[in-house]
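step=encode ok
step=design start
structure_in=
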């Protein structure tokens, strides 16, 4: 009895006296990309990996201080708060985009693959009651969705205007010291990528999930750790366009699926600027949940199962009808040079055993590599140089042992609301991006060059060409874009225009020119 009473006293003390953490900065909103910029500028501690987003702020580093680090003239202190209670409006945002001929674009949450004009609007508020944190940020998507030119391999026959409401970047969390547990619909972004992520990004709408995660690094004698454990539910929408035709053709796409994922990051004490991380994800149909095993962990937390297929029943693993993705990544900071490099390498299938991994590491593999460099200029201006390569096409190993395209699996596909959860560039695409910006506070002016090679090895029609001894068609987009961002008091306007030359569009002999434009308007309270 004495032990039990002491336990409750300690728990109550943690609830009352523990550090109070403020709201997250949702993925895809103004401020999200600035965490890494501020870190490379030397304004944020390099102990944070920023490889598990959304990012969280603390009572010692609240949202007001965060935005003022970006732009000292920005005032966002409208809030009602005491020591134990806080209420504040977050932001109002309208994002519009336009495609002149065919769908293009990714990392746009609930927006769909469509031609024409579409708009997403969201508004958010935040409440804290002691350690309980409630964020409500619903989203509404409205797309014109007119018909566009399709082929047997690409596109969706459109019918009507598309409208959809989401609970968006909303969450209910209990934050205690360095950890948080709760229920969320927020978009998750795992890994070091700037323009894409192999396992989790904001390409699809956020999905409902339970989360147990750190909100700051946990220090140990070995170094610092960060993690996020997620279990949720993936769904489809028969009224929305499909991101790839393979999703539509999959016979089990209508089944709701369970998602279980784990992200872990370690910063060694003897390498203070190096981060080493791992991502693992499973998804499987709710209809065959009894196949997963008898225990709670087997059914809902398979990320804690053994890695190699031979360790979990060999060929019996294939009978369970579930899909796995696994990736390792690293991010290396160079604070004195205001720069960083990063790399991620992943697989979309189990290796049978260590011998299989050692002999054929390329099977079902993909990678992402990039860097960011800032150079200080005069009058608080910075030159920003970003570059990234995403390689999701099959390697040459497919000639011996085909693995299929990333994100398209026999058991339902790695998607939510018909959109891929990982790299929004596509199911087997290779993308190279180079972006140069001039930064000053929240103002920005820049140019982007991008090359997208759609499912190059091979497209479904490639086999017919190869059997005739001919070179298969390659659908390649070459784009040049111009972007800007300007702040007037608390109003931030960010336009972007991209000119895209699509050669062999949709794996046909046709080529066209597509105009892709975006306008993002945000008001911060």
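sequence_out=
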């Amino acid at each position: 009895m004495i032990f039990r009473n002491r336990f409750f006293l300690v728990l109550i003390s943690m609830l009352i006296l523990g550090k109070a953490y403020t709201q997250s900065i949702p993925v895809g909103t103004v401020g999200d990309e600035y965490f890494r910029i501020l870190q490379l500028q030397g304004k944020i501690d390099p102990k944070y990996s920023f490889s598990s987003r959304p990012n969280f702020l603390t009572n010692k580093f609240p949202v007001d201080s965060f935005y003022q680090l970006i732009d000292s003239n920005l005032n966002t202190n409208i809030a009602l708060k005491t020591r134990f209670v806080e209420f504040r409006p977050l932001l109002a945002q309208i994002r519009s985009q336009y495609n002149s001929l065919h769908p293009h674009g990714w990392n746009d949450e609930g927006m769909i693959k469509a031609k024409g004009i579409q708009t997403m609007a969201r508004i958010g508020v935040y409440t804290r009651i002691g350690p309980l944190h409630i964020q409500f940020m619903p989203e509404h998507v409205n797309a014109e969705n007119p018909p566009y030119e399709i082929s047997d391999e690409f596109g969706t026959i459109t019918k009507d205007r598309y409208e959809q409401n989401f609970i968006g970047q909303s969450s209910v969390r209990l934050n205690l010291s360095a950890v948080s547990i709760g229920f969320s619909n927020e978009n998750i972004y795992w890994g070091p990528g700037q323009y894409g992520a192999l396992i989790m990004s904001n390409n699809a709408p956020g999905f409902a999930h339970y989360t147990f995660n750190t909100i700051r690094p946990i220090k140990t004698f070995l170094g610092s750790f960060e993690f996020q454990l997620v279990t949720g539910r993936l769904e489809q929408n028969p009224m929305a366009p499909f991101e790839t035709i393979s999703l539509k053709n999959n016979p089990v796409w209508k089944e709701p699926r369970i998602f279980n994922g784990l992200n872990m990051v370690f910063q060694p004490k003897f390498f203070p600027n190096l981060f080493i991380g791992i991502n693992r994800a499973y998804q499987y149909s709710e209809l065959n949940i009894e196949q997963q095993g008898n225990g709670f962990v087997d059914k809902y937390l398979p990320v804690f199962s053994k890695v190699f297929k031979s360790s979990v029943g060999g060929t019996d693993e294939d009978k369970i009808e579930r899909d796995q993705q696994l990736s390792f990544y690293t991010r290396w900071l160079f604070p004195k040079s205001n720069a960083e490099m990063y790399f991620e390498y992943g697989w979309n299938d189990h290796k049978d055993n260590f011998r299989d991994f050692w002999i054929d590491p390329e099977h079902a593999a993909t990678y992402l590599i990039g860097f960011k460099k800032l150079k200080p200029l005069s009058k608080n201006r910075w030159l920003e140089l970003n570059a990234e390569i995403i390689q999701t096409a099959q390697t040459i190993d497919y000639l011996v042992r085909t693995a299929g395209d990333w994100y398209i699996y026999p058991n339902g596909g790695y998607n939510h609301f018909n959109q891929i959860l990982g790299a929004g560039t596509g199911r087997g695409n290779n993308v190279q991006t180079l972006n140069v910006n001039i930064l000053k506070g929240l103002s920005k002016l820049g140019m982007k060059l991008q090359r997208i090679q759609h499912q190059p090895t091979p497209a479904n029609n490639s086999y017919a060409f190869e059997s005739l001894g001919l070179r298969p068609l390659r659908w390649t987009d070459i784009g040049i874009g111009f972007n800007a961002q300007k702040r007037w008091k608390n109003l931030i306007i960010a336009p972007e225009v991209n000119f895209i030359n699509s050669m062999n569009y949709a794996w046909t002999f046709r080529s066209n020119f597509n105009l892709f434009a975006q306008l993002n308007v945000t008001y911060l309270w």
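step=design ok
step=annotate ok -> Residues 1-18 have pLDDT under 50 and may be disordered.
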